[in-house]
Known about the structure:
Shape: globular
Number of helices: 7
Oligomer: single chain
Order of helices and strands: HHEHEHEHHEEEH
Radius of gyration: 18 Å
Bound molecules: iron/sulfur cluster
Amino acid sequence: MNRCPCSVAAAAPPEQAMPDARLKARDHSLPPEKVEAALALLRQVAGDYAPATFANSLGAEDMVLTDMILREKIALEIFLLDTGRLPIETYDLLAAVEKRYGTTLKVFYPRHDLVEEYVRTKGINAFYESVDLRKGCCYVRKVEPLGRALAGKKAWVTGLRAEQAATRTGLPLHEKDSANGLEKFNPLADWSEKDVWAYIAQYDVPYNALHDKFYPSIGCAPCTRSVTPGEDIRSGRWWWESPELKECGLHLKKA
Length: 255
Ligand code: SF4
């Protein structure tokens, strides 16, 4: 198993080796109607489904929604799940967001007793050993805190896009989240990766420094690595697993 991101990035052809993620938006014009549609949906959720909340992972898509919500003063709560294993660059971005928009995000942490039990009985990096152990870690560090973050809410908003992964094909703008018992809205469901980066460039939105180091999708540090340009953008997440298994349990599809 190759866990070294440096060897993957080094193999990129020079013409594709664009370490600045903003270059992805070069020559791409973001249709204004896509921005208006996303803003309209966010306003509708805030108005019709209060109390609603936005699950912000600080990924590129979530930074687009963060900017829309805070710049346009849309009445939606924003929360973040801090798993305790995030990259330092993600914490730096959180600090940058709070400074830029003059606010603090609501951060949820895992229950310490569950983390302690998992580490004591399974091991600190047991998630590499099997899908079940990986899902167990994601449950303790993400799914259980998500339940607390969504408690009492009528709806939640995500930055998911249909193009992101095999597990997200056909993603709708609005769906019933029966697993959590509330409505779920995905305002960027039909956005392309270039749309996202064009928005970030147009509005000068802060983003994770790892995006400039061939990390298109960023989660926990030990479960994320860089990809070769042109590779599937989720291929750096849980890279030792099959694509159809690559979800952490936060976004379960309807049966
Ligand atoms: S992404 Fe990795 S470290 Fe993070 S919660 Fe899941 S298994 Fe644990």
